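Session log. Operator J.P. requested a structure for one protein chain; no other inputs attached. Running the standard single-chain path with token output.
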Amino acid sequence: MRTPTDAGRYDLRFHGDAEVGDGLVDLAVNVRAGTPPPWLRERIAASLTALAAYPDGRAALAAVAARHGRPREEVLLTAGAAEAFVLLARALRPRRAVVVHPQFTEPESALRDAGHEVERVVLRAADGFRLDPAAVPRDADLVVVGNPTNPTSVLHPAALVRRLARPGRTLVVDEAFMDAVPGERESLAADRDVPGLVVLRSLTKTWGLAGLRIGYALAGPEPVAALRRAQPLWAVSAPALAAAAACMEPRALAEAAEAARVFTADRAYLVDRLRDLPGVEVAGDPPAAPFLLLRLPDAARVRGTLRALGYAVRRADTFPGLGPEWLRIAVRDRRTTDGFVNALATATADH
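Structure written below.
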């Protein structure tokens, strides 16, 4: 479903961290609990002795390029994936920009702030929020889609996403949560023959580095060069570069793969527990990300009751295409899940 941009209806700058408060169990922010691990903190701490020097990104760049089987000129390190959206908005001059919603709101926000008009293609809950390439206008020269998608937890088949690519179009695929998918199935990060493809990655979620700001873009040499020209010098700090290099090592990749396996098992447990609650619907069939999108009656009141019971969850009515009946929750360990589901049962019964 295509819709004109209704900038006033949704708060595109609202994010889950605004929900978190002292003493609340955090199910609002999609960052893996218990991170960063000690070995990563040590690597970051060791980089602090070189803070007097300007950041040197060559080692981190080489590590990311090797991890994805790309030459270095096809990688751009960024201060989080959010910076990459700003760089795209600065570097590109789209005639018809389309953002596929519901999804992370920063791409549209960055485009609007740069003066671009944005058209929305809104996926329907009745269709499981599944991607329909035919819904995207053929003359769109910039298309942004998330995979797996925040907040719906839907993983689109790679073959379906590739159908969005065509000559003359920049196709931006936000894969910020792809490393939480076992085997990173459906990733396009290694695809070098898809025209106009830009893949964005983040190290925030699996490694707990939201405060450090580190991510990267993967694309052809020309798009990467254009993004680099739009980026300030030394945009990525030395500690962030150290973290990026460390997270590409075999030990780190193995730990990330294990974390994805744990996420998958813990998510299945959470979904099973939620099935016991009348009136609570889980979006995505099956969900594939380390969070779930829930639809339930009187969600705003339930969210407030959950806060009173000690749990922070993310309102979802700030995502275009969603309304006040939706909430997003992060996947946590089973003990946390049991406590949360008990609280949710109380909150939904208190009506």
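Operator note: The chain is about 35% helix and 15% strand.
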